[in-house]
Amino acid sequence: MFLDIGSDAQDFDLASLRRVERIGFELPVRCKHGLVRSTVMLKDLTPYGARIDGLDKQRIGEPLTLFIPGLHAKTAFVVWSEPMSSGLEFDHPLHQAVFETLVSDFAIGHHRKAARRPVRRAA
Known about the structure:
Elements: E1 23-33, E2 36-45, E3 49-53, E4 63-67, E5 74-82, E6 85-90, H1 96-106
Antiparallel strand pairs: 1-2, 1-4, 2-3, 3-6, 4-5, 5-6
């Protein structure tokens, strides 16, 4: 499906078409593309995909495998690519609870949820 934005391209806001807001990350993750393994920087994440930096321009549709801490290997496909930056769509979206845990643990400006401890009262 292609989007026809016609002559009003200057006034068109691509961010308004996003399914969900992107959450910023600065997380080094392992990546496998073809036979090559490397470390890339996870720059943002949604339940549906991610943006990574650190790979040369990739081919659209090319599969990659991301190794995100706490998850099994995650397959994703390149949906856009520029030199050293690529947008990926996961083969299956992340479960909401898994996504929220990743945001809590690793996202920029988010803090880990404090473990609930019993309140101790002075004697």
